[in-house]
Amino acid sequence: MKTIDKIINWSRLKSPWIIHFNTGACNACDIEIIAALTPRYDLERLGVLLKGTPRHADVLVCSGPVTKQIEDRLVRIYEQMPQPKFVVAVGTCACSGGVFQGCYNVKSGINAVIPVSAFIPGCPASPKAILDGVIKLLASLEMKEEKE
Amino acid sequence: MRDSNKFKIPIGPQHPALKEPESFSVALRGEKILGVDIRLGYNHRGIEKAAEERTYIQSLYIIERICGICSHSHSTCFVQAVEEIAALEVPKRALYIRTLIGELERVHSHLLWLGVAGHEIGFDTLLMYTWRDREVVMDLLALLTGNRVNYGVNTYGGVRRDISPEQAREILKGVDILEERTKYYIEVATQEVTIIQRLSGVGVLSREDALKLDAVGPTARACGVARDIRKDDPYSAYAEVPFSVITDDHCDVYGRTVVRVKELMESYKIIRYVLKNMPEGPIAIKAPRKIPAGEALGRYEAPRGEDVHYVKANGTEKPERVKVRAPTLANLQAVKHMLKDRYLADMPIVIAAIDPCFSCTDRMIAVGYVDSNKAEVINWEALRSYGIEWYRGKGIDFSKLNKEFSRRAIS
Amino acid sequence: MTVCENIKQQLAAQFPGIEERVKIPRPRRIFVDSSIEEFKKVFEYAINELGFKHLCTITGLDELDKFSLIYHLAQENGVLLNIKISLSHEDPVVDSIIGYFPAAEIYERELVDLFGIRVNGLPEGLRYPLTDDWPLDEHPLRKDWKPKTAS
Q1: Contact indicator for A50, A80 with CB cutoff of 8 Å
Q2: Which of residues 37-96 of A touch C (CB under 8 A)?
């Protein structure tokens, strides 16, 4: 890994900025994502900060099975994020469409539309699982750093 | 009747590539809102069609996931309709357990709402406190059902899980804690000047309009309309459980806040009563896989208001038709009406105050300035920040309260 | 006499022949099959004289040889009056009730999108719940509709 990449990776490791997007979910996962940011679970102590705009975000945290109405916006948000960027699919719907697989107005999960870096299953994914998933993503970045 | 204020939002050349539709279109004359168009359907998944292609048992899982905040509401409403068609006599103990879970759900939902409302007006420490307290309920629900959300408690003919004396004791302990905290929230809501100033006179809906526009839930009750399905059209155990329907006469967002915090106290009463008077007996009777031909309308007072499920059965193991009308849809016309002639800065809290069952966090708002013929598209975060700043300019600022709350130690 | 029986009697007195088309499956639930011709009068009678002032929703049904609509109206005391009418399958058209219930607009838009029922008197507005680019002749809740491609 080049020096500049190491620095970026390090700062990502220490403080990933996330943007949260709901692609037609029932809201259960979204609430667990926000709950993960509250003091009991405290995603913030990992340096994770919730940002309002994709242009400053490193990680796109996505819930929902991607409805037709929202698909374009999802792609737009992904395109607006600077590199390197990562996508976390939170909840079974985001991973595979969940109970909505086969419904006429949904795709079957986030990775039907954009590349996904980490899948966190659960219906909904609990805040603990979300924490675990984020930590694993950060660890894989660290491992990537060590390899290079 | 339809108003003659037809407005067209001019979307200027700044947005030639705006592919995704905006969720809200607002026409502004000066600072005042002429009208709002709300585009729903972003979370339209095709559930009603799916239900026709799945068995009743499979449909139950998808119905429960219509909304992740009131999943038990949808599940119970649906199950009630099917049980009515099949003429199933659900054991009393099951009805009491459904009531218990339903009220725990109302508690988590109202606490969640309090936090979200706080966030929308810039009172973020309230979000931290209420969501911390909400974890007490989430733990109880997980203890009773195995999940924090989407409890899977219902089955046709009853419930799938019983409640033990130990669990009952845990619930009572939890309710005691929450009652203390809620008393504090009532104090804050009714005595903190900044909150009263911020929320009073905002999102006004007269009693007549609430009735004319078919508003439901706390939105209607805050306009003095004593409409609560638990009292008007009792289901589960509510015909036997003593409780009061909470109404308020402020007709605004402040009133909607007061109704919800007071409803929390009623929920604690109901939970205690249900536990104390839980009937003995089975928790379910056997239900047929094929539901005989017939139709029924289920009604349920979800935390947001009246939930309606129409079910038509045709003698097979799949429903012929399932129609769901969630409470948020019912309050749609009312919310459009509340925003007319108000300030753009009011939009976030007025919409939040109907407790919408859609995630606002990333919705785009197209704002059209009728006088200058200009338009812009902003996201919800930007609108929220704008609202907080605008009110700060009027002297209503939550920074002090946030600091104060962060210092206070709530046991 | 129960509240529902009372309402049935009142309907019977006002609309000859309707009595046999009124069903009371349980307390607080009345189902009425109304003819298209009498519907407007029955509807207005229910709202103005019987106190059914709250519209819960409108359900559309594809019954293969016809489309049916059920208007679910409620009284403050919890009684629900479900008025059903039938429309032709080839050309289903009905008048809007937004003059009585402004909240009906969204329920009627649903009928347009999901069943292809024409609603006279619906003002110009955003469609619901389908996307703007959803083909205008595809109506997912029709019994013969299947998604074209797997999602």
Answers
A1: no
A2: 68-69
